[in-house]
Amino acid sequence: MDDIHDAVFVMDASSALGPDGFSGGFYQRCWEVVGSDVVLAVQSFFRTGVVFPGLNSSFIVLLPKLKDSILIDQFCPIVLSNFLFKISSKILADRLAQIAARIVSPHQFGFIRDRHIEDCIALASDYVNVTHKKCYGGNLAMEIDIHKAFDTLDWSFLRRVLQAFGFSLVFIDWIDSILRSSRLSVLINGSSEGYFRCSRGVRQGPSFPSFVWYCKGFP
Protein backbone atom coordinates (compact mmCIF):
# COMPACT_ATOMS: atom_id res chain seq x y z
CA MET A 1 0.00 0.00 0.00
CA ASP A 2 2.88 2.38 0.77
CA ASP A 3 4.39 1.66 -2.67
CA ILE A 4 1.12 2.67 -4.31
CA HIS A 5 0.82 5.87 -2.27
CA ASP A 6 4.44 6.82 -2.97
CA ALA A 7 4.06 6.17 -6.70
CA VAL A 8 1.01 8.45 -6.88
CA PHE A 9 2.67 11.35 -5.11
CA VAL A 10 6.09 11.15 -6.75
CA MET A 11 4.76 11.37 -10.31
CA ASP A 12 4.15 14.68 -12.07
CA ALA A 13 0.74 16.01 -11.07
CA SER A 14 0.57 18.29 -14.12
CA SER A 15 1.36 15.72 -16.81
CA ALA A 16 -0.88 15.66 -19.89
CA LEU A 17 -4.20 13.84 -19.53
CA GLY A 18 -4.81 10.34 -20.85
CA PRO A 19 -8.10 9.11 -22.36
CA ASP A 20 -9.88 8.99 -18.98
CA GLY A 21 -9.31 12.73 -18.42
CA PHE A 22 -8.00 12.42 -14.84
CA SER A 23 -4.64 14.03 -14.03
CA GLY A 24 -2.14 13.15 -11.35
CA GLY A 25 -3.22 16.30 -9.55
CA PHE A 26 -6.74 14.90 -9.22
CA TYR A 27 -5.53 11.71 -7.53
CA GLN A 28 -3.17 13.63 -5.24
CA ARG A 29 -5.73 16.25 -4.23
CA CYS A 30 -8.56 13.74 -3.76
CA TRP A 31 -6.50 10.91 -2.28
CA GLU A 32 -8.59 10.72 0.90
CA VAL A 33 -11.67 10.09 -1.26
CA VAL A 34 -10.32 7.90 -4.09
CA GLY A 35 -7.22 6.44 -2.44
CA SER A 36 -8.82 3.21 -1.24
CA ASP A 37 -10.26 2.48 -4.69
CA VAL A 38 -6.92 3.21 -6.36
CA VAL A 39 -5.18 0.81 -3.99
CA LEU A 40 -7.73 -1.93 -4.72
CA ALA A 41 -7.35 -1.42 -8.48
CA VAL A 42 -3.55 -1.63 -8.41
CA GLN A 43 -3.56 -4.58 -6.01
CA SER A 44 -6.03 -6.36 -8.29
CA PHE A 45 -3.55 -6.17 -11.16
CA PHE A 46 -0.67 -7.56 -9.11
CA ARG A 47 -2.90 -10.26 -7.66
CA THR A 48 -4.56 -11.45 -10.88
CA GLY A 49 -2.20 -10.21 -13.59
CA VAL A 50 -5.18 -8.80 -15.49
CA VAL A 51 -5.35 -5.17 -16.63
CA PHE A 52 -8.85 -3.67 -16.43
CA PRO A 53 -10.36 -3.12 -19.92
CA GLY A 54 -9.51 0.34 -21.23
CA LEU A 55 -7.10 1.14 -18.40
CA ASN A 56 -4.06 0.68 -20.65
CA SER A 57 -5.47 2.86 -23.43
CA SER A 58 -3.44 5.86 -24.57
CA PHE A 59 -3.55 8.76 -26.97
CA ILE A 60 -0.77 9.42 -29.47
CA VAL A 61 -0.05 13.06 -30.29
CA LEU A 62 2.11 13.72 -33.34
CA LEU A 63 4.39 16.73 -32.81
CA PRO A 64 6.05 18.14 -35.96
CA LYS A 65 9.84 18.08 -35.98
CA LEU A 66 10.02 20.59 -38.83
CA LYS A 67 8.08 23.74 -39.68
CA ASP A 68 6.27 22.18 -42.64
CA SER A 69 6.16 18.50 -41.66
CA ILE A 70 4.26 16.26 -44.08
CA LEU A 71 5.77 12.77 -43.96
CA ILE A 72 5.11 10.51 -40.96
CA ASP A 73 8.81 10.32 -40.03
CA GLN A 74 8.83 14.11 -39.72
CA PHE A 75 6.64 13.87 -36.63
CA CYS A 76 7.57 12.87 -33.08
CA PRO A 77 4.91 10.70 -31.37
CA ILE A 78 4.09 11.49 -27.74
CA VAL A 79 2.03 8.96 -25.77
CA LEU A 80 -0.55 10.21 -23.25
CA SER A 81 -1.49 7.43 -20.83
CA ASN A 82 -4.04 7.15 -18.04
CA PHE A 83 -2.48 8.18 -14.73
CA LEU A 84 -4.13 5.25 -12.93
CA PHE A 85 -2.40 2.81 -15.26
CA LYS A 86 0.97 4.54 -14.81
CA ILE A 87 0.90 3.75 -11.09
CA SER A 88 1.45 0.02 -11.67
CA SER A 89 4.10 0.77 -14.28
CA LYS A 90 5.88 3.12 -11.86
CA ILE A 91 5.94 0.50 -9.10
CA LEU A 92 7.48 -2.07 -11.46
CA ALA A 93 10.02 0.49 -12.69
CA ASP A 94 11.12 1.33 -9.13
CA ARG A 95 11.57 -2.33 -8.24
CA LEU A 96 13.49 -3.08 -11.42
CA ALA A 97 15.72 -0.06 -10.87
CA GLN A 98 17.10 -1.69 -7.72
CA ILE A 99 18.64 -4.58 -9.67
CA ALA A 100 19.11 -3.03 -13.12
CA ALA A 101 22.81 -2.29 -12.70
CA ARG A 102 23.50 -5.94 -11.85
CA ILE A 103 21.89 -7.48 -14.93
CA VAL A 104 22.14 -4.85 -17.68
CA SER A 105 25.41 -4.54 -19.59
CA PRO A 106 27.89 -2.07 -18.03
CA HIS A 107 28.11 -0.46 -21.46
CA GLN A 108 24.46 0.63 -21.25
CA PHE A 109 24.09 4.00 -19.54
CA GLY A 110 20.54 5.14 -20.30
CA PHE A 111 17.85 4.94 -17.58
CA ILE A 112 20.05 2.89 -15.20
CA ARG A 113 20.41 4.13 -11.63
CA ASP A 114 23.88 5.53 -10.77
CA ARG A 115 24.85 5.58 -14.46
CA HIS A 116 24.94 8.77 -16.45
CA ILE A 117 24.66 9.11 -20.22
CA GLU A 118 27.10 12.04 -20.00
CA ASP A 119 29.87 9.58 -19.09
CA CYS A 120 29.23 7.63 -22.27
CA ILE A 121 29.28 10.79 -24.37
CA ALA A 122 32.54 11.92 -22.77
CA LEU A 123 34.13 8.51 -23.38
CA ALA A 124 33.14 8.57 -27.05
CA SER A 125 34.53 12.10 -27.41
CA ASP A 126 37.84 11.08 -25.83
CA TYR A 127 38.13 8.09 -28.14
CA VAL A 128 37.50 10.15 -31.27
CA ASN A 129 40.27 12.52 -30.21
CA VAL A 130 42.84 9.68 -30.20
CA THR A 131 41.75 7.73 -33.28
CA HIS A 132 44.30 9.54 -35.42
CA LYS A 133 47.13 7.95 -33.42
CA LYS A 134 48.53 4.69 -34.72
CA CYS A 135 48.05 1.63 -32.54
CA TYR A 136 48.48 -2.13 -32.83
CA GLY A 137 45.66 -3.59 -34.91
CA GLY A 138 44.46 -0.20 -36.12
CA ASN A 139 41.59 2.04 -35.04
CA LEU A 140 37.91 1.71 -35.84
CA ALA A 141 34.98 3.93 -34.89
CA MET A 142 31.37 3.12 -35.81
CA GLU A 143 28.13 4.97 -35.15
CA ILE A 144 25.20 2.54 -34.99
CA ASP A 145 21.59 3.63 -34.69
CA ILE A 146 18.82 1.01 -34.52
CA HIS A 147 15.97 2.37 -36.63
CA LYS A 148 12.79 2.64 -34.55
CA ALA A 149 14.47 0.56 -31.84
CA PHE A 150 11.72 0.81 -29.23
CA ASP A 151 9.00 0.20 -31.82
CA THR A 152 10.39 -3.04 -33.26
CA LEU A 153 11.07 -5.13 -30.15
CA ASP A 154 9.39 -8.54 -30.42
CA TRP A 155 7.47 -9.43 -27.25
CA SER A 156 8.09 -13.17 -27.44
CA PHE A 157 11.83 -12.49 -27.67
CA LEU A 158 11.59 -10.18 -24.68
CA ARG A 159 9.82 -12.90 -22.70
CA ARG A 160 12.64 -15.36 -23.44
CA VAL A 161 15.23 -12.78 -22.38
CA LEU A 162 13.49 -12.20 -19.04
CA GLN A 163 13.30 -15.96 -18.48
CA ALA A 164 17.03 -16.23 -19.18
CA PHE A 165 17.69 -13.52 -16.59
CA GLY A 166 15.83 -15.65 -14.03
CA PHE A 167 12.73 -13.50 -13.46
CA SER A 168 9.77 -15.38 -12.02
CA LEU A 169 6.89 -16.48 -14.23
CA VAL A 170 4.53 -14.24 -12.25
CA PHE A 171 6.68 -11.18 -12.91
CA ILE A 172 7.04 -12.01 -16.61
CA ASP A 173 3.27 -12.45 -16.87
CA TRP A 174 2.77 -8.98 -15.35
CA ILE A 175 4.94 -7.45 -18.05
CA ASP A 176 3.32 -9.55 -20.76
CA SER A 177 -0.15 -8.49 -19.60
CA ILE A 178 0.80 -4.81 -19.67
CA LEU A 179 2.27 -5.04 -23.16
CA ARG A 180 -0.59 -7.04 -24.67
CA SER A 181 -3.37 -4.95 -23.12
CA SER A 182 -2.12 -1.69 -24.65
CA ARG A 183 -4.38 0.15 -27.09
CA LEU A 184 -3.59 3.39 -28.92
CA SER A 185 -5.59 6.11 -30.61
CA VAL A 186 -4.06 8.93 -32.65
CA LEU A 187 -5.26 12.42 -31.79
CA ILE A 188 -5.92 14.48 -34.93
CA ASN A 189 -6.87 18.11 -34.35
CA GLY A 190 -7.64 17.22 -30.75
CA SER A 191 -10.03 14.38 -31.58
CA SER A 192 -9.59 10.60 -31.63
CA GLU A 193 -11.45 7.97 -33.59
CA GLY A 194 -11.24 4.38 -32.35
CA TYR A 195 -8.30 2.40 -30.99
CA PHE A 196 -5.87 -0.12 -32.41
CA ARG A 197 -3.90 -2.77 -30.55
CA CYS A 198 -0.13 -3.03 -30.42
CA SER A 199 1.72 -6.18 -31.47
CA ARG A 200 5.33 -5.27 -30.69
CA GLY A 201 7.54 -2.57 -29.21
CA VAL A 202 7.68 -0.70 -25.90
CA ARG A 203 7.34 2.95 -24.97
CA GLN A 204 10.45 5.07 -24.73
CA GLY A 205 11.38 7.03 -21.62
CA PRO A 206 12.69 6.61 -18.05
CA SER A 207 10.14 3.97 -17.13
CA PHE A 208 9.54 0.25 -16.79
CA PRO A 209 9.06 -0.32 -20.57
CA SER A 210 12.40 1.29 -21.40
CA PHE A 211 14.23 -0.79 -18.82
CA VAL A 212 12.60 -3.88 -20.26
CA TRP A 213 13.92 -2.86 -23.69
CA TYR A 214 17.44 -2.60 -22.35
CA CYS A 215 17.12 -6.08 -20.84
CA LYS A 216 17.38 -7.48 -24.36
CA GLY A 217 21.14 -6.92 -24.19
CA PHE A 218 22.83 -9.50 -21.97
CA PRO A 219 25.77 -8.48 -19.74
From TrEMBL:
<dbReference type="InterPro" id="IPR043502">
    <property type="entry name" value="DNA/RNA_pol_sf"/>
</dbReference>
<dbReference type="Pfam" id="PF00078">
    <property type="entry name" value="RVT_1"/>
</dbReference>
<dbReference type="InterPro" id="IPR000477">
    <property type="entry name" value="RT_dom"/>
</dbReference>
<protein>
    <recommendedName>
        <fullName>Reverse transcriptase domain-containing protein</fullName>
    </recommendedName>
</protein>
<feature type="domain" description="Reverse transcriptase">
    <location>
        <begin position="75"/>
        <end position="205"/>
    </location>
</feature>
